[in-house]
Amino acid sequence: MSKISEKFKQSIASIPTIKRLPSYLNLVKRVDEDGKTIISATTIAKELDLEPIQVRKDLAVTGITGKPRIGYQVTELIKSIESFLNWDTAHKTVIVGAGNLGSALMNYRELRNHGLCIAAIVDANPSKIGTEKKGHIIQDVQNIPQIVKDTGASMAIVTVPPEQAQVVTDLLNQTDIRSIWNFTNVKLKVMDHILVLDEDLSSGFAVLSMHMPFYRESIK
Asked: Which of 4, 56, 57, 155 is disulfide-compatible with 93, CB 3.0–4.6 A?
């Protein structure tokens, strides 16, 4: 299967489509584990509460085509989705912040299964610098530019307190980092070549929290 260029991927896939692809992949992998070799868009749609036409459109961006009235070859579909998401290659990553959240992400096996490779972990706390965590010696955050250069990392995961977020981002701006996964609630100011994905956990909790009073009212 030939690789699709990154520029072409970005031109044909919307963010909602990209966010749905992992759900398809998880489902198809379960089907593969059950020994099934074919899966239809209708089956995927039913399992994920989507419309079959939406599933077909989403999968089409990966370059795969299903057979009418039959469906998709399971193994080929897995390969197509993983290749499209670049989950079949290693992504060297620097974790910025060795606290609880940074540690949890290091321990999250699913990310490693999708190619996330921890190249280094850095922190500003003198008591943590020089200690070991998951086989990595925690390094001084001030050394980020040299660390990125030495490791060839292309991604950074920022899990620092809000007041430190832009400070470490200014250091990342001096590097060849291409993307930042931002777990702070700060809007980061980055160089044009860096893509930022904000993952504000408090926003997600806000939605759930607001829903709870209505839920309690409905069950009275």
From this structure: 155
